Amino acid sequence: LPPTSVEREGEPRRNPRSSERGGTTNLPMTSMKSESKKEDAGHAYSGLAKKPVICIVGGGNASHVLIPYFRCKGHKVTVFAGHCDEAKRLTEAMAQHGGITVFDRCDPKNLKEYSGRPNMISKDPSTVVPQADIVVMALPSFAFKPVLTQIKAHLKEGAIIFGMPGQGGLDLVALSVLGPELLSSGRVTVAGLVPMPLNCRIMEWGKSVDLASIKDSYDVAAVPARNAPPAAAACSALFDRPTRALSHYCAMALHASNPNIHPARLYGLFSDFKEGKVYAENPLFYETFDEPSAAWVARVSDERLEIWREVLRQSKGAIGREGEVPDIQSYIISIYGKQIHDARTVASVFSTNDGFKGFRCPMKKLSLGAKHGGGWTLDFANRYFTEDIPEGFCVYKGIADLAGVATPAIDEILGFFQRFMGKEYLVKGRLAGKDVRETKAPQAFGITGLAQYLEITSSGGVAAALAGVVLDLSSVRVDHDAIATHALALIRSASLVL
């Protein structure tokens, strides 16, 4: 979400129209404005009673978009904000501003605004989770475990929990928290989604958010694996985008997302880094994407694909197909489409991508008068390091070790940055350091073999014949809610026949 997580660095391009404007929506009404035309945000929906109720977790960047986005589609939206006083602050912000306004610049030639507010906000999960057909956790992956622990007792039978981003060991975390009584039985589905649907940045908390991109397509993997197709159908209905059901969560763990992009790009930029080094500026992360960085990104991509091929070989193709784990260049093209002006090289799909404009590197500014007289240095407390490396990059390496695949590029990058992070993940070319337990690699959960890892999250699995099926509801004017409702019904009745 990339950061995906929602993009996490840099300053938003502030819309000049937003300086004093607050949301003016009174529930249940929502509003959408466009410079070229008024959008019919809910054309595919035929009645509020049929729409899945959505609970959004937290008040971060993505939540600021998703609350008005889903309200404009006519969904009932609740918010579980269990962190500190977040629920109180968000409630007060809604009272002050009347809702959250999205300044949508996904199409620079057709700037839009739309506003909305949730139906209910609470710090108590028992008041906002039980009615939810769909729970959206648009959170850093390290927050998945505490949130799942808090909502476990309040989940509706048949609920789908979407994790965004879907990497970060969500499958193993969910199994460890929710247990087989909820997941293996199919009573609840946990579905990971990549890419992070949005590139966005809060402009004023509780009031406005800048939206740079909504991705063009998604991949979904689920626990239990057999529920991936209905979860993908629900996702496609929610975002009006084609969504592919992955056969096994291992394909999600090895996917081309932030862990492939961020560590490799940072190594391309800062392989000369040493303690105390100061840089004159904080460069733009994507617009300056150069060939050395692209080469490292491509090498990591090649190693991911080799790991997946070996997983398929050892499982005799039982858990999926080769194309389910994409190379990085094709993947970026597939999700950004026309926002990319030059798709010829790995470097250019990043440097000419409108969805990536304005984001800077994970650096911190040194104050004037400091030892080096100011400047910039790497910020190892930034989530490009604290999330992408242990929650994603180490997962690549962990699965590689289980499959017996050499990963020299991953090893070089991981070995370099772990020193400055004060961590020991990699020892003599294997993920066996003292801090492995802090990662989301299979080894952190006591898994020692590939077959063991694949079996744990299969729980019946998706038939190999369905691997790679794409559910594209975006171009057909149909009742998406009926499809999403049907998907939920399939999960609840456990009657899905593959």
Q: Summarize model confidence as the mean pLDDT.
A: 84
Largest sheet: 9 strands, mixed
Helical proportion, percent range: 25-40%
Strand content: 15-25%
Give the tally of β-strands. Answer: 18
Low-confidence stretches: 1-49, 460-480, 490-498
Tell me, briefly, the overall form.
Answer: globular
> Radius of gyration over alpha carbons?
22 Å
Give the termini distance in whole angstroms: 32 Å
The total of helices stands at 16
Structural class: alpha/beta
- Strand arrangement within the widest β-sheet reads 6-3-2-7-8-9-12-13-18
Describe this entry's structure for a reader.
- This protein has 498 residues and is of the alpha/beta class.
- 34% of the residues lie in helices and 16% in strands.
- The chain has 16 helices and 18 strands.
- The chain has helices at residues 61-72, 86-97, 125-128, 144-151, 170-178, 228-239, 249-253, 258-270, 291-314, 328-336, 346-351, 383-386, 388-403, 408-421, 450-458, 480-493, and strands spanning 31-34, 54-57, 77-80, 100-104, 112-116, 120-122, 134-138, 160-164, 189-194, 198-204, 208-214, 218-223, 243-245, 363-366, 375-378, 426-427, 430-431, 470-471.
- Helix 6 (228-239) runs antiparallel to helix 16 and helix 9 (291-314) crosses helix 13 (388-403).
- The longest helix has 24 residues, at 291-314.
- The protein starts with 30 loop residues before the first strand and ends in a 5-residue tail after the last helix.
- The model is unreliable at 1-49, 460-480 and 490-498 (pLDDT under 50).
